[in-house]
User: Which sequence fits this backbone?
């Protein structure tokens, strides 16, 4: 069995996400947000990242506040249950801590941009965004002939948190998939973090559920709870209180920096982070709703 | 159960009445999810809800939802798929109704959820479109929900994230190539504004109980015209309130702002 | 439970596939070809159909020979294990039994054409087909600026054979999916035939496996063996000998008409067809390879 | 096991040698599937196979396959997905090698699998491209396998389904915008023809055992040039033949045509 792809988040980020990378995250919108990966990017002081994603809940806001980001290419940046992203505001309104370039998208147009790259096309045409000022604030969108040409977005790296994967980089993810599939197909490389590292027999029992060709995957990080405070179907509820606390504390730059110190910089890894949460058990999903099997029988 | 209701509960009830039975509804977050839940539980039992992140549902989840991706909204879904598949149905013109919110709406129904002030040097950076622009451009009709404040109902928005009727001229959407029909109504904490068939400028259609035309006009950033025969918005029924409180028992979404 | 969509193949074809329809079939390429539906189209004497599909194994050849078809929009028409499609040849070379319009595609371009329709786009751009004479023989393909614009293909009806479905029109299909998903999403309506009609609990236990929004589906036809002689993962092997027999007998127009009389026109429905096969048991897949469950638990 | 082999078995062995270890190979049907099986079992244990209908595999299925969609080719797949996902990897330039067959190939490597004669009034209608045009245009390199007959190796094909080097002029593929590198070789029942780096006209590179340069030239529809130092194609090794016969025990694909 191949195991060369299995590594820690520290190793994965150090090996595959250099400064200046374009990084797609938050691809499933609210669930399965790879917060553990984002925090490791912060700890390793990545700079000049181009973040790509439809809606990342509060993850992009954190990376922006931590000074890792030069450009955001996204449909929405904030805090889904709480509203505004305060670091996003500070960066856009007053360049704090860095000036931020914003390339606005809608959810549909960013999906099309990723599909364009996944299919080796320079752009995909659509009627969405006609009449919207988003056409003014993103040079990747070109209107003409009653259509908008959405330029291809090819992330250097797509980082996904999934429910389970095997050592060869085959992922099973379920629940709403957002733009995860096209973001993985479009990327130069894919980093997976997973709730469970499972035997390949589990994954290969259901090849239709494999999210992307393993040939794209360079790292598999076993990282239970790596999506907290985002929900993970079958594993974790969303931690609304944690999101609210983040929203409150990040209203000021000082408050954010304290939050960052506490939850990211002074916390060496995800296990330590989970240990800081006073009660993870209240978040754990305990009642199973198992899918009916399908039969891949061939003889 | 108390028959007293919050402005948000009235908005949910009014929004629910915009849903016809059998509609395929593009559901956003917050109040629209509650409106769908109320409609589905009352007069629209055959409605279906699309959620942009990749879900189709019939019955709304009964558990509290902080986001549309919370696990109770996925369990029991009729289809769990990619965002582009759901948006594709919208782009085909198959979504009967969408709901949108926003920081600012203008007299022609354009919504701003992106930038207050010049987008190159914004006074306020708002979160952005999400799926809002897609719904505004592609759904057959849509309804805006927002708090009725003079700073929110403005003459012209500083940035059009989600286009309504543009500059308000006849046929603007058609000329720009927008496939969907445009906004039908603006449901606020004080009133319901409606657009004439074919689009144009929002008119005051009904005032919520306890409020006046003068109050509504004073809180509106343009010289709001009143539809002849405009009356009072019906209060939420007991059944509607029951359903709202079933789906939002702690008033997380419907407590006054 | 809704049951209004459950009907016989005769009812489904009579209700939803009028003469002149554009009909996508054979969307999974070699597996899950809806032969039972195709035979019912022949029995009901449909004419002037526009068949759409990448590779339909020998199904399109049969419909062409039966005189049902005015146009074929496809990447490949023949008999996958045997080679040429003899009815296709006769129609294209000598207009027998009808003149046939051919709109050539490649497999990739027909997929893009269906995705264009599924996304409400007039076309999708690609670099495939550059330098190919396919650009000369299909007006739906327009080259310019170093790209090919593949015009949207919106089938009036897409007909899929799947492993299982429920009465509301929710399908579970597995194995390679070809262009089935985009063909279903793009279509005005979808007709499903299925090996098994199952309770909705089975389907809804795994909403990620549902192929297309039920709102597209107008008919669900319980039709075990409806794919024969094509394979159905978990249910049926491919019947190579039957394909060979068809290839041999269809070499001449007379031979084809005898074959058609025997297997389609004088055979009232799929149950009678299966009864004519001397040994279906040799084709049945008996060893199960069940997928590992996933957990949709939410509390 | 007999050491005697059919021309098709030699073709499979020669095709297998075109696969490097670690290659992502776009596998068609018939002989290429066998070539991949042989390569994977011998010198290329880390190769991966893509099948256009939506499959990725490592080990080839051992059961007889009539089509790439037969159940044994799906069971044990590493990924079972949509055609467009697999084609997308090809379009990204990630397929190292593809295999193609055809009714006709010409001196510049162009393949015809569509129409013999004028396509508006064809003498013979062939099945068409399938994924052939996609592989020819988009893969990094590709190899043609076909029976060596004068009517099949022609000066110019009547219809270019899958473009090789077009009119043979320097830079034709680049000027037309074709992303992939083009054909590397033509493996026939008599010989192996190769193209110079950068493309152009196929030259005779090696003749199969038991055949002569003159015979090959006589069965070729253009004035076939011989590469200096052209020799004899190595016969299939015993190991190669063992693998071929393991995957095609009844000679369904490798019996002489």
Assistant:
């Amino acid at each position: 069995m191949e195991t060369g792809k299995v590594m820690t988040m520290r190793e994965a980020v150090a090996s595959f996400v250099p400064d200046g990378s374009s990084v797609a995250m938050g691809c499933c919108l609210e669930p399965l947000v790879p917060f553990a990966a984002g925090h490791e990017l912060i700890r390793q002081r990545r700079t000049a990242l181009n973040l790509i994603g439809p809606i990342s809940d509060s993850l992009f806001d954190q990376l922006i506040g931590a000074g890792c980001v030069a450009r955001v290419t996204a449909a929405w940046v904030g805090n889904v249950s709480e509203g505004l992203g305060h670091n996003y505001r500070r960066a856009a309104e007053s360049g704090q801590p860095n000036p931020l370039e914003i390339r606005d998208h809608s959810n549909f147009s960013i999906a099309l941009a990723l599909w364009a790259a996944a299919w080796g096309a320079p752009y995909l045409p659509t009627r969405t965004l006609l009449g919207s000022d988003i056409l003014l604030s993103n040079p990747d969108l070109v209107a003409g002939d009653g259509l908008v040409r959405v330029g291809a977005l090819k992330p250097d790296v797509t980082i996904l948190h999934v429910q389970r994967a095997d050592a060869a980089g085959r992922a099973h993810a379920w629940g709403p998939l957002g733009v995860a599939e096209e973001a993985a197909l479009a990327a130069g490389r894919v980093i997976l973090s997973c709730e469970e590292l499972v035997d390949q027999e589990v994954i290969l029992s259901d090849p239709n559920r494999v999210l992307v060709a393993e040939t794209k995957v360079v790292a598999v990080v076993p990282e239970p709870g790596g999506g907290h405070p985002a929900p993970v179907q079958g594993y974790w509820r969303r931690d609304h209180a944690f999101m609210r606390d983040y929203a409150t504390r990040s209203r000021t730059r000082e408050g954010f920096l304290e939050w960052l110190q506490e939850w990211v910089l002074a916390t060496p890894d995800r296990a330590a982070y989970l240990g800081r949460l006073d009660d993870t058990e209240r978040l754990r999903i305990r009642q199973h709703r198992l899918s009916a099997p399908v039969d891949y029988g061939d003889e | 159960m108390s028959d007293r209701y919050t402005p948000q509960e009235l908005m949910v009830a009014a929004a629910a009445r915009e849903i016809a039975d059998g509609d395929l509804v593009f559901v956003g977050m917050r109040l629209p999810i509650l409106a769908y839940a109320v409609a589905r539980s009352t007069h629209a039992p055959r409605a279906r809800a699309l959620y942009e992140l990749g879900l189709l549902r019939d019955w709304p989840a009964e558990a509290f939802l902080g986001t549309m991706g919370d696990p109770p909204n996925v369990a029991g879904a009729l289809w769990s798929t990619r965002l582009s598949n759901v948006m594709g149905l919208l782009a085909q013109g198959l979504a009967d109704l969408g709901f949108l919110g926003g920081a600012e709406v203008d007299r022609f129904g354009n919504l701003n959820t992106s930038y207050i002030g010049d987008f190159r040097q914004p006074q306020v950076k708002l979160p952005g479109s999400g799926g809002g622009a897609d719904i505004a451009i592609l759904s057959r009709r849509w309804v805006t929900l927002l708090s009725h404040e003079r700073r929110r109902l403005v003459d012209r928005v500083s940035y059009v994230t989600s286009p309504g009727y543009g500059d308000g001229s006849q046929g603007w959407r058609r000329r720009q190539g927008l496939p969907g029909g445009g906004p039908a109504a603006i449901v606020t904490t004080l009133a319901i504004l409606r657009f004439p068939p074919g689009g144009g400028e929002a008119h005051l259609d009904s005032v919520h109980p306890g409020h006046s035309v003068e109050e509504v006009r004073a809180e509106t950033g343009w010289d709001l015209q009143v539809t002849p025969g405009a009356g009072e918005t019906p209060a939420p029924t007991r059944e509607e309130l029951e359903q709202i409180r079933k789906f939002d028992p702690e008033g997380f979404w419907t407590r006054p702002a």
Residues 253-265 of chain C form the longest helix (13 residues). Chain C has one domain: 9-283. Chain C has a mean pLDDT of 97. Residues 9-283 of chain C form a domain with the Glutaconate Coenzyme A-transferase fold (CATH 3.40.1080.10).
